[in-house]
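With this grant's support, the team has encoded backbone shapes as discrete tokens. A representative record is reproduced below.
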Amino acid sequence: MKLRVDGLSVRFRLPGAVVQAVTDARFELREGRCLALVGESGCGKSVMAHALLGLLPANATVTGHAWLDSLDLITAGERTLAREVRGRRIGLVPQSPAAHLTPVRTARAQLAEALRELDRPETPDELARRAGLRPGDLDRYPHQLSGGMAQRVANALALAGDPPLILADEPTTGLDRPLVEATMAELRRLCDEGRAVLLITHDLRAAERVADDVAVMYASRVVEIAEARTFFTAPRHPYAAGLLDALPTRGFTPIPGRPPELTRLPAGCAFQPRCSRATALCDEQPVLNGVACHHA
């Protein structure tokens, strides 16, 4: 399995404005590896995820390509995405898993329904064991599940179609630290089983726990891609370095200023107004070659 995103851009048409949500994104992800897509809220990470699944609203315009092996997810029709991709080739672990479970149905009933829809021969108990759940936990309703159990049910639903790619969209939102660690351990286990995981998160500590590679987004663009070990020891883009410096364990030094509005992005480097290394070169958009910075 290989996911190759090539020149992916997403625009939202609003009355009197266009939101440049994702611009010319490029990255690759292979089986057995976890790519963490990190950045501040609003930079375009979750829009990227929804674009890959064909779940954007009607006012979105998508260009570029996202190849899942030989299938272009961007040009594939809704029929193909619904019947062949969602659940079968890409499993989604959503934000706030408990909120995505049907409150009046047990976990068992929801897993059984997913297996029926995907024409899978497994039983809910077998699927539960694969996600680290005890079969007895399946007879509970969502409000009876702990945060960790709800996360595992969400993982089980994502695994129901045995997809080679798991897309985890901010899966640690609202979780305390022990549950974050447990969630990351589950995602790492999926990678170690041979699946690919695209982890979308603003939690750098979580990304460091599980990722093989890191892609950093800022103001709709991927500005750095590196192996996780290299990124967390020697980030090259000034924004990436600023993200790490803002961690409590690294000095808690915030990045000055604010990101630009996605309706008014500059022609050059969007980080220029906040960057201590900015020069006139930054008036031109840098090319992403591992890092998109004229001074890296």
In short: The two ends are 32 Å apart (CA to CA). The domain at 2-89+163-283 is CATH 3.40.50.300 (Rossmann fold). The beta strands are 2-14, 17-30, 34-38, 60-68, 71-72, 90-93, 165-169, 196-201, 213-218, 221-227. DSSP finds ten helices and ten strands in the chain.
